[in-house]
Specification:
mainly alpha, 0% strand
């Protein structure tokens, strides 16, 4: 069998994250919540930004953020309220099964990314894992602010808990900025200046 058959299967599996809604938002009454894949995309971008500002390796941090929820293709997205009642297999063990058909160096690399992200709250945490974890929390904060702006009145607990969970200096400053800046500010500014010449 061609070694790339395993890569193709893995790629199809990652696509399941596009179908998997973020479960916490369903509990908050969001009717059409973001998918895990949508969440992971912005986590990767935020991890890159935070790491660049923190003096860490932005490429590594972005990779951690991009892959951090990959085990959820097999165990689902268990919201915080469900974690005391549901026991799931450790992300390391899920990832080991997910990458089993990949070429060995690639499998080891992807499994290491997931392990490194998971280590963010340990003494072995790398700067990149801390940036990736902060990006995960900040993405939730940004999404909660966006849902709040759309009229969902149940977002404040998410906002408060995500602000409290951020650990890096850049992450803390970014969380404060996210509370001060309206989610639509980028568009309002662009629209107000559309067609005007830049100097």
């Amino acid at each position: 069998m061609d070694a790339l058959h395993g890569v193709a299967k893995f790629a199809y599996e990652t696509g399941q994250l596009k179908q998997l809604p973020r479960a916490g938002w369903l509990l908050a009454g969001v009717r059409d919540p973001e998918s895990v894949a949508e969440h992971s995309f912005r986590v990767g971008v935020l991890a890159y930004l935070i790491a660049a500002l923190e003096g860490a390796d932005p490429d590594r941090a972005a990779a951690l953020g991009l892959f951090h929820d990959l085990p959820e293709t097999r165990i689902g997205d268990v919201p915080s309220v469900g974690r005391p009642y549901v026991t799931t297999t450790a992300p390391h063990d899920v990832a080991a099964d997910q990458v089993a058909e990949l070429p060995d160096p690639l499998a080891a690399h992807i499994a290491a990314l997931i392990d490194e992200h998971e280590s963010a709250k340990t003494t072995a945490a790398t700067p990149e894992s801390r940036c990736s974890r902060d990006a995960d929390k900040l993405e939730c904060l940004l999404q909660a602010r966006e849902y709040q702006t759309q009229g969902n009145e149940h977002m404040q607990p998410w906002i408060d808990s995500m602000v409290a969970a951020v650990a890096t200096e850049t992450g803390k400053r970014l969380a404060a900025a996210a509370l001060e800046v309206s989610p639509g500010a980028w568009w309002a500014e662009f629209a107000a200046n559309f067609g005007k010449k830049r100097t």
